[in-house]
Amino acid sequence: MILKKDKQLADLIKSLSGGEGLNHFSYSQLQQSISMWIVNYFVRTQAQRRKDKKKFLVGFGSVASNVAQMITGRYIFHGAEREEIKEKDYAKVFQHEYKRYLDEPFDERDKYIREQVEQHLHDTIKNILQTVKNIFGDDELQCERYVDMIPKDLMIGITGRIDYEADTKFAECKTKPPTVRDIKGELRFYSKKLPTDPDPKNVMQVAFYTLASGKEPFLFYANEKDYIIFDQSHPMLKQDYLEYCLDQMIRKAMTIQRLLIASNGDPKIMAGFVERPDLDNWMLKDASTEQLAIIKQLWG
After folding, report:
1. Interval 122-126 mean pLDDT
2. What is the pTM for the complete model shown?
3. pLDDT for 38-85, tens place per residue?
């Protein structure tokens, strides 16, 4: 039996993502402010989101992790399809990923930086490979497998992809790209310090993967100089804290769902319930012209 309110919510969800509909929440969605969720996942389509240009920092991690996955993994997932990884030649895999990286600059300055970080990438990948070996040994690995969870009373579930996974454990990889500074007209690169404790945002992601997969979690960070591994000996990766983090994640999804119902599927009404996006926040410094136009339209 489908309740009237459930049908109403199902219809509202079909209006999301610029009218394409939204079939899941994700960690990347739920780490955003609710106001930016409205901009990116209520108003904008997937195609619009994918067109956003990102600075070298974001792509750096993707290149490093993608190469390491191809070298260490036995299988990689593309959606629900599992593919055995055949190409294991490091040079070929790296050049494929690095070329894509070079082809997607944010601007001319960003293009130049991408051309200068090749060795930083090689060194970071080397540390990722060593970390994965330390965690998994000779275990057979699969990468990018989707895990799902549909919490009670949430109309759509939460979905995510696991970086590295064996039979009984998994690992989430985070990179720390170098910092770039303009010193007297010259760009200089400085190593970014590795954290001494896990980032709470990353722990929230790990919490979801742990409770969705039922496997032992590892969270590690790597830069061009070193790596650090966090496991369940750290208080923030213990079961009770992970359960707390997942609960917070679900609560935010439930808040979005309640606001969607209260606004009756009108993004401008929903925007009226939350604060205007903080454009001074570092995550929004590079907001696109399109995003800024939507913010102006919704909040004035």
Report:
1. 98
2. 0.92
3. 999 999 999 999 998 888 998 999 999 999 999 999 999 998 899 999
